[in-house]
Amino acid sequence: MFKQLFTKHTKNADGNLTDFLHELRTDFQKLIKGLEVETFEQLWNLIVTDEVERRVLRNTGIFPTEIKEHFIDKLSQFKSPELLLEKLDRYESVRNITKKKLMTIERSIPISKKRIRHRFELRQKNRNRET
After folding, report:
1. In this structure, is the dihedral angle defined by the CA atoms of residues 63, 67, 72 and 78, taken in order, positive or negative?
2. Is the pLDDT of residue 107 over 70?
3. Taxonomically, which superkingdom (predicted)?
């Protein structure tokens, strides 16, 4: 919540830049306090993790939309880039394994268009006979 306040904060039309700076600082302090950041290393990890999230999840096509949905509630919990990337790698490998299994299953079921059309035509004939 505080992250959105900080990142999406805009200057009021009737406000001045000094007020805007004060509001940004206040939002940033709330963000840091809410995430329990107390050291420079924790702040550095937070910034790098946020950048990894932004670049990997938002700017590239590497990870699909469902990964955002899968991690949406957990993203703020990843306070180190290593932990976030470990989770993303694990998710991607499971996703690839599942995809390969599905492709193997699909290939093992030979269905031709003629066969599907034939089944459809038989159903239509049976329906016509019943009426």
Report:
1. negative
2. no
3. Eukaryota
